[in-house]
Amino acid sequence: MAAEPLQVALVQLRTGTNPATNLKTTCAYLRQAAAQGATLIATPENTNIIQSDRQAYLQSIHVEADEPALLAYCALAKETGTHLLIGSMAIKVSPDKAANRSFLISPQGQITARYDKIHLFDVHINAQESWHESDHIRAGNQAVLAKAGPAMLGLSICYDLRFAALYRALAKAGATILTVPSAFTRVTGRAHWEVLLRARAIECGAYVLAPAQGGLHEDGRRTWGHSMIVDPWGEVVARLDHDEPGVLLAELDLKKCETVRQRIPSLAFDAKYDLP
Predict the structure, then answer these.
(1) Which of 102, 179, 217, 228 is such that its CA lies 20 to 30 A from the CA of 9?
(2) Whole-prediction pTM value?
(3) Is 256 a catalytic residue?
């Protein structure tokens, strides 16, 4: 008997500076996605807050044990009977640093995996736009693979997308879905978002789920949106062609990963390359 398709949903957000307001908005979209049949639902990077004022940011976030949104999402996962991937939340880890942390929550309301963003967004895009995430974020150092129903998820966050070796390692360890919750800038999103997502899917023979932040945020930041689901052959199977908040749904046939990897068995190739 053929396996049932996996019903997934991505929530696109425009997170603001007030965590309580953000929580209310996100929960409404999560309930909408569950009501439409999704059993795995993912939100973007920075689900709980986007705040460029560093002092206000640090004053608004909590250590994990005291984070009210995390407790609410665990309750909501149990209420709806869904796997929730909260793409990332700012979690305080010291007086002047946070972790940019993904949480996978089971239908029983339990946190089953955590992933701290490894590659921090320290870039100089142009004369008007520079970012130095390491000023207030502590980098992670551990890749994470996690089970969600019939799927094995390889967790990542936003800027990780540019580091192909991470995704190859996740796919070789068994990931059939790569999650890329993001808050891409408009400049880099317009130029690189789709091509990078499709490249990671093709290289790994895996589905890619990429829920995104989009639009003009309260703190003045602009993000690209255009949340996207890519199949193991590199085809975009669902997308939002805008930066407005909303829900994107799709059915995934996980057997397609095995089929594609048999057709192009690049993951089996482990040669080392010596340069002069």
Answers:
(1) 217
(2) 0.97
(3) no
